[in-house]
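hey so i finally got around to running the thing on that chain from the lab meeting. sorry it took forever, my laptop kept dying and i had to restart like 3 times. anyway pasting the input first so we r on the same page abt which one it is
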Amino acid sequence: MSKQATALPLVDLNADAPCCPPLATRRIPAETAAVLAPAFKALGDPVRLQLMSMIASADGGEACVCDLTPAFELSGPTISHHLKTLREAGLIDGERRGTWVYYRARPGIMRQLAGLLATE
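ok and heres what got predicted. didnt touch it at all, straight out
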């Protein structure tokens, strides 16, 4: 059985508008929390947070795994595990090109997370 929440369709993670009011203004619905929590959990690891930053800030909006792996003192399989976690959380998409995989951030969910944490 998948570890992803079954309620994923309740929130459009690619929407331009925030999914809900910021946490500082109103309580988040339980269903929305269940959908967004895996993304926050994935970003709770320092390596994954760095990977996310590298991917989101990469020239052209995408980063090759061949450029990500050397930035860490970790094995390739460990980096692959972290990238898989980010992918399963809906934060990134990957596309295989030959022997390499190129990753790009999913802007919709990034907007959702940023909007939820907004203070104004």
